[in-house]
Fold this sequence. Notes:
Number of helices: 5
Distance between the termini: 22 Å
Radius of gyration: 25 Å
Strand order of the largest sheet: 1-2
Amino acid sequence: MITCPKCGRPVSGRARACxxxxxxxxxxxxxxxxxxxxxxxxxxxxxAGTTLGIFGCLALLAALIFHMLVLFGHGxxxxxxxxxxxxxxxxxxxxxxxVVLLVQLxxxxxxxxxxxxxxxxxxxxxxVLMVVIQAYLDTxxxxxxxxxxxxxxxxxxxxxxAFGAAAGILSYRPSA
Length: 176
């Protein structure tokens, strides 16, 4: 319900003119839309996608913490990873990608302006999920320094991020 600017009576928000005095409401309607401060609303699916994505990021960051604790937690030199270029790239990717996604999710807070970021995160999470599953099936926990917690956290994190991105894609409604 809106109020007629001429007679002050309540009128349906869909009406083009006031039913009491005949005042045109179309001009005020478009003016209100242009000057409104509410750019885009987040839907329930977008909020669910954001929540799943945040929990997925936390699981991926927990996997990074366990990945880094291997250096300090074991006295056995057999468990210590060789800190070559592959190790540094893997560690950097395990640190940067979840942090970038987490910052994006916290800044947007469920508002979707485009499907592109969600599509990118869906692709990346499924790709990492396939790599982790293949690595675990090939060598078991040995690839992860004998810590079975790392691949499980990576799988849970990637699945949550993938579901969150899919929920964001499904909830996306382009602005008219």
